[in-house]
Amino acid sequence: MSTSEPDVSGPAHVTRDCPASIADAAIAPPAPGEHVRIFDTSLRDGEQSPGCSMTAPQKLRFAHALSELGVDVIEVGFPASSVAEIDAGRAIAREVRGSTLAALARCHAGDIEAAARTLDAARAARLHVFISTSPLHREHKLGLSREQVIERAVMGVELARRHFDDVEFSAEDALRTEPDFLAEICGAAVAAGATTLNIPDTVGYTTPAEIRALFEYLRANVRDAHRAVFSAHCHDDLGLAVANSLAAIEGGARQVECTINGIGERAGNCALEELVMALNVRSGYFDARTRIDTRRLLPTSRLLSRITGMQVQRNKAIVGQNAFAHESGIHQHGMLKHRGTYEIMRPEDVGWVQSQIVLGRHSGRAALSDRLQSLGFALDEARLNQVFAGFKTLAEKKREVFDADLEALVLGTDAPTLHGHRLLHLHVSTGVGDDSLPTASVRLLDADGGQVSEAAVGDGPVHALFAALARATGIALHIDSYQVSSVTTGDDAQGQASVTARVDGAELSGSGTSTDILEASAHAWLEIANRVSRTRAAAPSPQRIAATA
Ligand SMILES: CC(=O)SCCNC(=O)CCNC(=O)[C@H](O)C(C)(C)COP(=O)(O)OP(=O)(O)OC[C@H]1O[C@@H](n2cnc3c(N)ncnc32)[C@H](O)[C@@H]1OP(=O)(O)O
Ligand SMILES: CC(C)C(=O)C(=O)O
Ligand SMILES: [Mg+2]
Which Gene Ontology cellular component annotation is one that this UniProt entry carries (predicted)? Predict the structure, then answer.
């Protein structure tokens, strides 16, 4: 496909259609390109949600990944919750450099001591204290009056300041708090020493216009507001967390609290990858920058999914499998002419290798012809039309048409009988523990009818299997991705293995289906290897192929 640079800038000047602020006159607009701090709370707000628990080594590994991603602040946890939480946080504080490390505490002496102890070894530490401020929470949860809540907040901030200079104060349920009381308690927190004022939409209740106006109001009405950085912490109960966080930035927030993949309480928090890319792609609109290395967004998202077992949905922005995949013919045709037609950012910039053209029921001739050419088949129009008809019939039966299916269509044969190695037998043994040595043996039928057997060991059963296949075929593949998913349900469910490999600079993919996932994996691997050996042996001459019609 064409790889020309997308020009996705859109109209040169986008008019800001912003609601009137409560205190317009008093507020200077934020400086162009101002730094918005990214505060990641995947290890705290994210981890405290169902299905997202992590062990201490997993938290440490993920904290390193967040630091490499370039987040400004990593919230390592809520130390008062358990001894294990303190130990995990301490391990992070000992090792992770490059980001400020924060720990959460209630306005409660014991919590604050635990948080401070956790961050002892951190090079840059922040104590984060919070208390609820909304009438609902004051009355029903805390049983405290306005004055008592302010007293507790001031006590918490002052105690935190005895340990660290960097103290964040959060007014839990701020978006359902009376604005004048919110301004009052924020002012008291600044006077007590808070350097960051976090305004959480704890239950994901607000709207973009409302939160923007609130930030403008607070910046104008909190006593000594200029001494603190304003921060947004939005939840996604109405699916507005990212939009609300962006609006908060427009209202003057210079820190946004978010999580990778948007994990967090209930429907989750503002998704870091979405917020960062919105600021990045629409930089002409937002005038704000972060120091996130965007190419690490996908690897970091994948790491979190692997650690927690919580997969992102296919159509998730930025990091979902479909984020840069195109199946419909009209879009594919446009993409092949200029990828800016249907993509507003480059997949490479967020960690993908490239956009994906998926051939299926909705695809057209342009995409089919492009894929056939990349497989070495240059067909004239009449032959292309003929193959296209066969392709559509096949696509009605299959969800996705793979390269091996296309080769079979063009060559007029069945996919499994295509020239190359075929699997006759495989045996894999594996185990758990220091003494286990995953081992695989395979027997293949080669293109000339001969048989070849090989065995290999590996770090795991699939690794051993692929190593044995490499020995038997004499083809080494650099595997970029390997995925297994079920395509049917029940005891006899079919598993589909998909392998993507990089060979001679090209990305090739293969897939296999079987009730045995190791067999499916072997078929997927062999599909690629057979294509490599065919290409290497002799690129098919277009004339010869056209003659097979
Ligand atoms: C919006 C948020 O994300 S807030 C963070 C939420 N995260 C978590 O709760 C995870 C960690 N929590 C825990 O492990 C436990 O809740 C603990 C260890 C902190 C406390 O456990 P317990 O002492 O058994 O209290 P429990 O959780 O039942 O109730 C919370 C208590 O904290 C009080 N509290 C709640 N928020 C605050 C606050 N910001 N400042 C002071 N006290 C608070 C409540 O009033 C209640 O007090 P009470 O026990 O006197 O009635
Ligand atoms: C503790 C605070 C920051 C929070 O997570 C919330 O209010 O959602
Ligand atoms: Mg929260």
Answer: cytosol
Domain that holds residue 292: 30-308
Per-residue pLDDT tens digits for 480-503: 889 888 766 666 667 789 898 988
Q: Is 142's C-beta closer than 6 angstroms to any atom of ligand 1?
A: yes
pTM of the model as a whole: 0.81
Together in a domain, 435 and 486: yes
The residue whose two tokens read 């051939």 is 359
Instruction: Please tell me whether residues 426 and 482 are part of one structural domain.
Output: yes
Out of 43-52, 184-193, 414-423, least confident range: 414-423
Q: 504 a known binding residue?
A: no
Residue 445's DSSP bridge partners are 422, 451
| Ligand approaching nearest to the C-alpha of 231 | 2
Report the distance separating Cα 232 and Cα 267, nearest Å.
17
Q: For residue 412, tell me if it sits in a domain.
A: no
For residue 202, give the 3-state DSSP assignment.
coil
Q: Is 72 annotated among the ligand-binding residues?
A: no
* CB of 49 sitting under 6 A from ligand 2: no
Could you tell me if the CB of 392 is within 6 A of ligand 1? no
Mapped onto helix, strand or coil, the DSSP state of residue 145 is: coil
Could you tell me the CATH number of the domain that includes residue 463?
3.30.160.270
Residues 250, 335, single domain; the answer is: no
Ligand 2 atom nearest residue 265's Cα: 8
Structure tokens belonging to residue 230: 């304003």
In testing the pocket of ligand 1, which one of 106, 177, 266 has its CB within 8 Å of the most ligand atoms? 106
Which residue in the block uniquely carries the two structure tokens 């067999």?
A: 519
Whether residue 347 is found in the same domain as residue 252: no
The pLDDT tens digits for 318-331 are 999 999 999 999 99
Whether the predicted interface score ipTM is above 0.90: yes
- Domain boundary (369, 401, 433) is at 401
Output the six-digit token pair for 10: 């859109």
> Does residue 169 line the site of ligand 1, with CB under 6 A?
no
Domain match, 168 and 287 both: yes
Could you tell me which of 44, 48, 41 has the C-alpha nearest to residue 266? 48
Residue 313 lies in a domain: no
Number of compact structural domains in the chain: 3
